[in-house]
């Protein structure tokens, strides 16, 4: 029952939506993932990850997203780069270093392609624009 239908309704989030990404590093290379969807982002490359669900920590969201998108278990480590404000300040991208557990091998369950990039190949794919400063911050972490 609507108790006060004349009151204004809050339709926008007060806090920016948190989006987490995993910079999975193995053998001195980082995993880049090619987006399949939506059409305007298809062909751009990103870190596996996604939105943090209500009640979930950032680390829990990263572990869940890596299972869903790549079928792997990861250990989440340090932050890489700064918070990146996106979508007119309505979202924030936070990227963490991650490592693969149990010898798991990533599969492109939701992406159109996966590629391991060494320091010399870091800029060989067209990253989503918001990721540029993170990719720069990754350079010193790769031999
Ligand atoms: N996962 C990820 N998203 C990124 C990166 N850079 C970047 O701008 N984004 C943007 C793309 C999307 O607008 C948003 C993440 O949305 P998403 O669709 O991947 O999130 P999700 O997996 O939770 O998707 P859904 O459940 O809402 O379908 O953040 C990145 O490196 N990784």
Automatic annotation (TrEMBL):
Family of this protein: Belongs to the Nudix hydrolase family.
Organism: Dactylosporangium matsuzakiense
Gene Ontology terms describing biological process: DNA repair; DNA replication
Catalytic activity: 8-oxo-dGTP + H2O = 8-oxo-dGMP + diphosphate + H(+)
Enzyme class name: hydrolase
InterPro entries documented for this protein: MutT-like, Nudix_hydrolase, NUDIX_hydrolase-like_dom_sf, NUDIX_hydrolase_dom
Name recorded for this polypeptide: 8-oxo-dGTP diphosphatase
Cofactor(s) in the UniProt record: Mg(2+)
GO molecular function, one term: metal ion binding
Residue ranges occupied by any Nudix hydrolase domain in the UniProt entry: 15-142
């Amino acid at each position: 029952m609507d108790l006060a239908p004349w009151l204004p309704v809050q339709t926008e989030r007060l806090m920016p939506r948190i989006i987490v990404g995993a910079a999975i590093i193995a053998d001195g290379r980082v995993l880049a993932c090619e987006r399949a969807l939506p059409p305007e982002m298809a062909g751009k490359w990103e870190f596996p990850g996604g939105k943090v669900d209500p009640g979930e920590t950032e680390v829990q969201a990263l572990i869940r997203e890596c299972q869903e998108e790549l079928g792997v278990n990861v250990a989440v480590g340090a932050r890489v780069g700064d918070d990146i404000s996106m979508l007119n300040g309505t979202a924030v991208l936070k990227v963490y270093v991650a490592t693969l557990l149990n010898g798991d091998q990533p599969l492109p369950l939701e992406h159109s392609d996966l590629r391991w990039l060494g320091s010399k190949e870091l800029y060989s794919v067209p990253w989503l624009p918001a990721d540029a400063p993170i990719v720069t911050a990754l350079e010193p972490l790769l031999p």
